[in-house]
Design brief:
Blueprint (H helix, E strand, L loop, with lengths): L1 E5 L5 H7 L2 E4 L1 H4 L4 H10 L5 E5 L2 H4 L5 H6 L13 H17 L3 E5 L8 H11 L7 E5 L5 H11 L2 E2 L15 E4 L5 H5 L7 E4 L4 H22 L1
Parallel strand pairs: 1-2, 1-8, 2-3, 3-4, 4-5, 5-6, 7-8
Helix pairs in contact: 3-6
């Protein structure tokens, strides 16, 4: 089980010493250039893993407040629409993921991406049109479990969840994103239940450190008793 944060809550150098994985957030707002990304990969330990959050131009509409935060101005984009802007955004994400040697890319959709046939059609066209060089995860908001399962199974997507809010319904790989602060007991209950546990809240550094310390203690005891 790999444990990390969504974004760097401390300097990269310190983070690389503490953790084994990070979910890159800059790629969601306004992707960095390839030279910057290559420097990150070169600075990180060889066995350190980057996962990538897909650019909002693919998943979110231009009315999203995160566009304003990133200084993006587009007439039409998001919701996996089969249009030039969306596929161009995918090529940017793809190149960054390759430069980072990432294997997992997260697509997070907003509540405004409604559970309807038009949305599913967009997803089918998008995912059937792009390269499958990576493991793709989808964090849906407001969709029923049955529909999520059907879409994930059809498109070979990993259902990404906050396990304190809902259970994953598809995919052997388990990728958890923790959006709120929890008690130590709740955090420790995640041990052994996922391949990735990524914290994404104001206390993510402390929570990730706690879970990693407990995991290492448990693994150390197991080694001694073996």
């Amino acid at each position: 089980m790999k444990i990390g944060c969504c974004g760097f809550p401390i300097s990269m150098d310190k983070y690389f010493m503490k953790f084994e994985v990070v979910e890159v957030q800059k790629t969601f707002y306004k992707p960095p250039n390839l030279e910057t990304v290559k420097k990150w990969r070169a600075k990180a330990p060889e066995d350190f893993e980057f996962t990538v959050k897909a650019w909002q131009v693919i998943t979110h509409p231009p009315t999203s407040p995160t566009y304003r935060k990133a200084g993006l101005k587009l007439e039409d984009a998001g919701f996996f629409k089969p249009i030039e802007e969306v596929f161009r955004a995918w090529e940017v994400v793809r190149e960054i993921a390759k430069a980072l040697k990432a294997r997992f890319i997260l697509f997070q959709t907003p509540k405004s991406f409604k559970e309807e046939e038009a949305s599913i059609k967009n997803m089918v066209e998008f995912f059937n049109s792009i390269e499958r060089e990576f493991v793709f995860g989808w964090e849906a908001r407001g969709w029923s479990a049955d529909t999520i399962r059907r879409v994930c199974e059809s498109l070979s997507l990993i259902h990404v969840v906050d396990p304190f809010e809902s259970a994953p319904v598809y995919g052997e790989l388990k990728y958890f994103r923790i959006h709120r602060n929890h008690t130590e007991e709740e955090i420790f209950s995640l041990l052994g239940k996922a391949n990735y546990v990524m914290f994404n809240n104001p206390f993510m550094l402390q929570d990730a450190e706690k879970l990693k310390k407990r995991r290492d203690e448990v693994e150390g005891k197991d080694l001694k008793s073996a």
